[in-house]
Amino acid sequence: MSVLFPALQEKSTQAKQALRFGDRALTYAELAEVAGTLARELRALRGTGETPVRVAVWATATIETSVAVVAALLAGVPAVPVNPKIGERELAHIVTDSSPVRVLAEPGAELPAGLRELHRTDVTLTGSAGALPDEPGPESPALIVYTSGTTGPPKGVVLPRRAIAETLDALEDAWQWSAEDVLVHALPLFHVHGLILGVLGPLRRAAEVRHLGRFATAPLTEELANGATMMFGVPTMYHRIAAEVQDDPALRDALAGARLLVSGSAALPVHDHERITAATGQQVVERYGMTETLMNTSVRADGERRPGTVGVPLRGVEVRLVEENGTPIEDSDGETVGEIQVRGANLFTEYLNRPDATAEAFVDGWFRTGDMAVRDADGYLRIVGRKATDLIKSGGYKIGAGEIENALLEHPGVSEAAVTGEPDPDLGERIVAWIVPSGARPDELELADHVSRLLAPHKRPRVVHFVDALPRNDMGKVLKRALHA
């Protein structure tokens, strides 16, 4: 377990391609030389002092970012990925909180003022052969990934090497992920999905990753038609695929030939599931994870593909649902809503410099995710939303926003939908729908009746707002607080 990337040292994989970004690529032998050279330089920073040494990585969607993170991991120096679109205030907080001693960046990248004061190392694709540094133990910090922070400055999630290895090995089991797979994606590299799953995942499997740079269906089609076996994406990407696949035979055939299509970072609407399956015969796999926990559950490659669910717990991960008072929910009836709590070797170590927040996040060793779900009799979980923004208490019922959003998306007049709650003197909270129309605006009463027919009368929206677009973050999640603002 102490060696995160055995393929960098195995003779059988040296000539195999490891990374490709556009027309730039590295074999495993070349990656070992390039990342190894940088790792030896970073390893010298650790010295013998007791002060933690960390490096920031200007995490553009480039091959240099991948090399920088691999080098830091080889050196045993925790890396702090930084979003290239970050704002001044958030950047200042991250730099002050994590205290990196230098920043790793692609040559020519213009860094913001908050990083220019750090010693800069340009990541080049040159290096020399040499022994790779001895890697530290499983509890050693590997990455510090900052959460989005909805109520305050973002918190630095300290991810140990153990969590990365356990998650990637559990996904090997769930997805039958092998060295023969070729992964294609266009995810950003400053967060868990694109960086840990999308780059470190293939490298741990001795597989190959091809990064598109920016998402578009034409290059995706080309890669899937030329050897790529897996795709990772977020719902906004799959929504575009669903809109185009019926009228694009090349895209349809390319998707149909893939071994596995995986969606994450937010719920994929059932309507998009159905459109993609109808056109290609493929059923998209969904999984569930967080920055603090990495991956918790997934629909298995050899299991039933059930749209709208995030599957069953991964190997080594325990999952339970609890009532608001903390009482575990024993029912698996597909209706009883509870908060997801998890424990296992996939969990983070702490929030950097925040022992108070770390202690608050756990109860008896279980991590409080803040996500709400229901569980079917066979253990499949269905996420209904965040406790803070997606659990609506209306008329004595606990209602998850997610199932209403999926129902609304089945209406032909709805292109996108978000559901929130707002105070109501009679109901406690009323259900509010935010709709991006598909063509002409549908009638509000018609939408309410549509939801009542599919779900239940108490789940119908009482207020409907029509908007041109839903505010989203870089991972495609709807920013619901911004809707009310």
UniProtKB/TrEMBL annotation:
Annotated family: Belongs to the ATP-dependent AMP-binding enzyme family.
Q: Name one GO biological process term.
A: fatty acid metabolic process
Q: Under which name does UniProt file this protein?
A: Malonyl-CoA/methylmalonyl-CoA synthetase
- Domain AMP-dependent synthetase/ligase positions: 12-352
Q: Which residues form the AMP-binding enzyme C-terminal domain?
A: 403-477
Q: Which SUPFAM superfamilies match?
A: Acetyl-CoA synthetase-like
Q: Which residues form a coiled coil?
A: none
Name the Gene Ontology molecular function terms of this record: medium-chain fatty acid-CoA ligase activity
